[in-house]
Amino acid sequence: MSSLGDWLGFVATTQLAQELERGYSAGLYAIASVIAVRLAPALVIGPFAGAWGDRFNRRYTMVVADILRCLLYASIPVVHTLWWLLVAAFLIESLSLFWIPAKEASVPNLVPASHLESANRISLITTYGSAAVASTLFALLAEVNHLLGAAFAHFRSNPVDLALYFDSLTFLISAATVFSLKGIAGPRRSDDPDAAKVSTWQSIVEGWQFIGSARWLRGLVVGILGAVAAGAAAIGLAPQFVVDLHAGPAGYGVLFATIFIGLATGMMTGPTLFRAVSRRRLMGLCIMAAGLALSLDAVMPNLLLAMVFTFFMGAFAGVVWVVGITMIGLEVSDDKRARTFAYIYNMMRLMLLAVVVASPFTAGAIGQHSVVLGETRIRLDGVTITMFVAGLIAFAVGRICLRMMDDRPNVPLRTDIAAALLRRNPELGRGVGGLFLAFEGGEGAGKSTQARLLDERLRARGYEVVLTFEPGATPIGGRLRETLLDRANTAMSPRTEALLYAADRAQHVAEVIRPALERGAVVITDRFIDSSLAYQAGGRKLDDHDVRRISRWATGGLLPDLTVLLDLDPAVGLGRSTGPGDRLEAEELAFHRRVRTVFRELARRGGDRRYLVVDVAAYDVEHVHGLVLDRVEHELPDLPASAPTLTMPLARIEQSAGQ
Fold it and tell me: What HEC string does 175-203 produce?
């Protein structure tokens, strides 16, 4: 509703500006003035709006902004002067700068991480898709206004007023909706007692420094701006481009609609279609593809072919946008998220304005030229050259973005592309044929037993299996394991513990897991990233974003194809222990209950595709193994033609596992 109000308000206010100033030139200047005052707040207010979203209650910020925008739009037809229209437009846009970062920063707190990308797709579709709805609605309201004008003199002389009143209502509905969402509140506060003393200006500077300090985030900003610049060049040159193609005004409407259809298609289908490609790599690759599509678009000889490449350019730009904001939601901590979104949105507005204005001027300076080769006329006019060069620049920007954000520099791009074609797991970056399985759960749940049983069964079928565990599966990891589990190390801080587990996992992945996957083996590990999230974020109460980030960095984005969670009441599991136990087993029962809660929440968020949850207390060992094996069989890669097919009774496997 808020996006519908924004688009409807934009159409209505620009139309009203033209009506308030009679004359061809005066009307154009009035429209330009409205657009200018809507873009101007980004220069001054944008940074403060982002800092506000990281310091104050986001729900109240959004509600107050919507109510004030409601009142401002309602006041425009009442005052009915150009000066107030410009003032109101400036204030409305300023309030939007507070509303947007607060909204974007709140979404990751409203949905599970596994659904964030889907939520962002829906959000972006409704945001940009409502532009078409707003244009249609404005036309309908104009007709209704015409009918009302036959009976009421007010509507006869003020044809845009009904649209503005309706627009005001949309913001009131938005305010009521946001107010009902109790999950939106203030950002999570830092444990640092001095954090509350930081001034707004210091908060802004801190946000800029954070963006500048993270290489991947700098690459993301560069990439998004490159995609925006490519789209802006196409929009700015489209009116003359369709003339050069002899398509006329109708062609401009078709081409403009094609861009938004491509955007919507890319947002909805791109992340799913390319799910087997690293998200950080996908950003750069899609920007390069969008730039290439723009360059090819520039040299197309007719409208139909131009529509094809315009669609692809929009689609790749849509993928860039949805992946970019999803990465910010997942990777940027809650206390800096609003400032990050505000910075990117402000830079996008400025880039959009600069390119939309500069591209026609550049094309006009080049002029209209052509070369005839035989019976073929080759266009060398300003529009063609400017669009073609803009596409090449976007391609180069995409390459820079890819180098800055690449999270798997040692894995060839062709591996990710092959994984995409074969529909493999999105973040593995491994050779064809490998399978990665992880057993998770609390103390005494039987992870080691089930891992060994599965290992024996798969080996009997002819698979190469690597059975491993954490911590301590490597020589370096063994030293770390001694430190981590030694009950004498009671002074170890939670952060130290988290970093040591990440160090063990980094070596584990580099030395054991990834080499095995790259040669096509089945890897079964007893514990992986979920254990860090459960024990360090849940049990030790560290920030889950921090624990997740260091784990992802340590593993290079590696995730299991399937995680088997063996769920058991901690009181029962700890009761199975026969020895004195290690440092973690010695923790109080409340600690282990928090661990179990996080394990179960991770499985709920991950869904049935990535998790199998087994209630260990409800079944015996053999039945649990049967459930696991039945699920794993659906994930197994095909055996090589030369591999033997063997069978082994379960009783013999259990005997071997016991030995």
Answer: HHHHHCCCCCCCCCCCCCCCHHHCCHHHH
